[in-house]
Amino acid sequence: MCSAVTPTQATSDAGIVRVVLDVPLDRWFDYLNPGLDIREGNRVVVPFAGRQLIGIVMALAEKSEFPEHKLKAVIQAFDDVPFDAATLKLLRFCADYYHYPFGQTVLASLPLRLRQIKPAVSRKMWMYQLAKPVPDGLIGKRQLVLSKLITALQQHEECNEAMLGEVSSGWRKAMLPLLESGLVTRREVVAIRPSLTASDHEPALNEEQEHAVNSILGALGRFQPWLLFGVTGSGKTEVYIRLLQAVLAEPKSQVLIMVPEINLTPQLEGRFRSRLSQFSLVTLHSHLSESERLQNWQAAQSGEARIVIGTRLSVFTPMPHLKMMILDEEHDSSYKQQDGMRYHARDVALVRAKQCKIPVVLGSATPSLESWYNATGSIEHPAKANKQPTYRLLKLTKRAAAQAKLPRIFCIDITHSPPEAGLTPQLKQAIEQRLKRGEQSLLFINRRGYAPVLHCSACQWLADCRRCSAKMVLHLRQRLLRCHHCGDEQAVPLQCPSCGNPDLRPVGQATQRIEETLQQLFPQARVARVDRDTIQAKDALTELLSAVHAGKIDILVGTQMLAKGHDFANLTLVGVLDTDSALYSPDYRASERLFAQLMQVAGRAGRGEKPGEVLIQTAFPQHALFAALQTQNYAEFAGSLLQERIVLQFPPATYIAVMKAEAADYALVSQFLEDLTHAAREFVAQQASNFSEMPIIYDPVRPGIARLNRMERGYVMLQCAQRNALQQLLHAAVAWAWQHPLQAKIRWMVDVDALDY
Ligand code: ADP
Ligand code: ZN
Ligand code: ZN
Predict the structure, then answer these.
(1) Residue 634: exposure state from Cβ atoms within 10 A (0-12, 13-18, ≥19)
(2) Which numbered ligand comes closest to the C-alpha of 233?
(3) Does residue 12 carry a pLDDT above 50?
(4) How far is CA 146 from the centre of its chain?
(5) Which atom of ligand 1 is nearest to the CA of 205?
């Protein structure tokens, strides 16, 4: 069971309090209890190295291994209990698996407010419910507010203050006599944003959806990963909604839904809110204010929130009655944390589901190869005959909405029709057609800014970043050169810094420049650009999306932000401008990512009644990736990629981890990594008889961006076909690194199952 374990009642008056702290040491710290009421899981304030820190109580003990007179006393104890045993168990697993200090793992999983030295106050609110049937004649003729109030209470099992606020601003006054007469009762709850805008439009499920829902519901109450593999628009969200309705029918039960980036998909949240309006729903993501975040987190932890929709960090949210987890777009790399503890929320979700004995549903039109491998296993890969599928595969092969068809995909060979200012004649013509028909177009180019390079034609000077081994991107509107890796900015030079030539030229295409080109080509068209630069404000994307839905935009230009989940009924053309660099990238994951990205962006076309068309500009129209894309045959493409990975011994056929190091001076990094390689190889040689699969330790190398923010970088890759052996090696390597004389002079970190190095 995954219920909250009540903290042990044992409170001790003069005992030892053992806590973890947000410090990079993987151990507990002992303090004396000066007589405070302290329980396991409590937050306490303790002195540490001249500072005061928040500690989380792991245990209460009679004795310490340290002499008591050397121990300091706890300064303060808060009576909130952020952790239960189930959550701590999950965090313990993660700290071990990702080789990250436990105290930092624990503290990082909390909302900021709970990491601060003050009590976590949350605003309390009331929930109102009808206690008995409404007597006839209660509502007089002109008592409109009262009548609306009663109707709302009759329609909902419970109403909270915001819901009633939607009914009428005068609801409080009208409510008083109802409470006094006992017709209405109320109870105190944590504040939750509610919804009155219910939608009962419920499409009849098609056969595949029905099968998916029934299969998953048939296996509740135990651990089971499901891979819901459904083409874009096949009705995965509808499946999630039905699952939630069924699971939440059980009193108290909770569901966690994870999405890659919630602010990119406001529509999704809206659909859950309106279709499941009778259940309290909270979101958890970085666009919330800290107090909202605390409030929502507490609502999840107390069990008040039945549905939690969140981004990757929400995987750690305590939920005492968690009965199911759903991960939408499970292939999305934003589930991987790229600093601190480098966890993958999908993998953590699987561990959590296993610990809680509940199903976890992974949904995608282009599953990650990891999940695909786990779901198809040896069936499609005789080369790894020992691999049994551990996930169960469910397929949705067609678009769900009656008229919607999958778009047709074509390649435009740019060696025959060279683009002018980024656009081939065919693409221009296709856009023009859409403008004439009053339909919308989307142009996808995965680079923001004006141009990726600023170049001097006289001396071949290029604008480099001062801090990174990377080019500065030209942002013409702000007249800035900006490094997309470290954020450094410089004014655009008026002449070449190297030879004085005033004629500096932007080279290549990016969103701003395409936007400008489109405005010149189609002056009557309404063009909107969507990238990190235009969508910084909290509601900017929501506003833009509603403009698109309202038909106020003709052409959208944007980065992958546009690729995700949006449902534009009148969008019939998707143009893909420049993806060739990813086709032949040295990164073995590049084609997997590109395929997913193109499939997603192509999925934006033809979601309404009108058929969609996708035009891809490329110099390599014969590439296997495009063939698979055109037939929308993910299974075949994934199969061939998997064969390649098996042959090359890359994940998911094997497991990898990288140990990264960086310092201002590469000599130090190099020394550290050389020593590491040596020590790790020695360890493996010594342990050889214990391993059924031998870990491989590669020589130190430098990443693509060798210098980042003035730090010289390098890494060592460790690889093994057996997870356990790799973990043992990592354990030894981390212990070794802590002892190394250079470890204080450089920064080093471990990235298990690394996606980027
Ligand atoms: P996905 O999440 O797979 O992209 P959605 O759940 O968003 O797909 O469904 C795409 C569209 O199809 C939505 O407009 C949705 O309302 C509609 N839809 C989903 N299931 C059905 C169904 N069974 N019958 C008719 N329309 C459906
Ligand atoms: Zn020059
Ligand atoms: Zn830089």
Answers:
(1) buried
(2) 1
(3) no
(4) 44
(5) 23
With cut-offs at 50, 70 and 90, classify the pLDDT of residue 201: confident
Question: Measured in angstroms, how far is the CA atom of residue 236 from the centroid of ligand 1?
Answer: 7
Q: What is the average pLDDT across 564-585? A: 86
230 lines ligand 1 (CB under 6 A): yes
Q: Where are the beta strands (DSSP E) in 508-606?
A: 527-530, 555-558, 571-576
Question: Please, which residues have CB within 8 angstroms of residue 412's CB and are 6 or more apart in sequence?
Answer: 424, 426, 427, 615, 616, 617, 618, 621
Q: Output the 3-class SS for 410-447.
A: EEEECCCCCCECCECHHHHHHHHHHHHHCCEEEEECCC
Cα–ligand 1 centroid distance for 237 (angstroms):
7
Q: Per the structure block, which two tokens stand in for 588?
A: 């073995």
- Look-up of token digits 């471990």: 750
* Overall average pLDDT of the 266-294 stretch: 87
Length of the chain: 757
238 pocket-lining for ligand 1 (C-beta < 6 Å): yes
**Ligand 1 neighbourhood includes 569 CB (under 6 angstroms):** no
Residue 6 banded pLDDT, cuts 50, 70, 90: very low
Summarised one tens digit per residue, pLDDT across range 393-419 is: 999 998 888 777 888 999 999 999 999
Neighbours of 457 (CB within 10 A): 12
Q: Is the Cβ–Cβ distance between 617 and 428 less than 8 Å?
A: no
Q: What pTM value is reported for the model? A: 0.87
The pLDDT score that the predictor gives to residue 122 is: 64
Burial of 740 (0-12, 13-18, 19+ CB in 10 A): middle
Pick the ligand that lies closest to the CA of residue 497. Answer: 2
Mutate to test the pocket of ligand 1, among 207, 231, 237, 271 (most ligand atoms within 8 A of CB): 237
Q: Is 203 in the pocket of ligand 1 (CB under 6 A)?
A: yes
* Ligand 3 mean position, distance from CA 454 (Å): 15
Q: What angle do CA 122, 84, 252 make, to 5 degrees?
A: 70
String of b and e for 548-584 (b: at least 16 CB within 10 Å)?
bbeeebbbbbbbbbbbbbbbbbbbbbbbbbbbeebbe
- Quickly state the pLDDT bin for 381 (edges 50, 70, 90): very low
Cβ of 277 below 6 Å from ligand 1: no
Answer whether 205 contacts ligand 1 (Cβ < 6 A). yes
Nearest to 660 by CA among 719, 696, 702, 694: 702
Q: Is 209 in the pocket of ligand 1 (CB under 6 A)?
A: yes
* Average predicted confidence (pLDDT) for the chain: 90
Ligand 1 site, residue 440, Cβ cutoff 6 A:
no
* pLDDT exceeds 90 at position 532: no
- The Cα 706–Cα 662 span in angstroms is 10
Neighbours of 330 (CB within 10 A): 25
Q: Is 400 in the pocket of ligand 1 (CB under 6 A)?
A: yes
Res. 574 pLDDT band, cuts 50 70 90? very high
**Minimum-distance ligand to the CA of 489?**
3
Q: Tell me which DSSP letter residue 665 carries.
A: S
User: What spacing in Å lies between the alpha carbon of 453 and ligand 2's midpoint?
Assistant: 14
Range list of β-strands (E), 664-703: 696-697
DSSP letter for 464, please: B
d(CA 329, ligand 2 centre) in Å: 46
Q: How far is CA 446 from CA 134, 563, 576, 582, in A?
A: 59, 10, 9, 11
From ligand 3's centre to the CA of 466, what distance in Å? 6
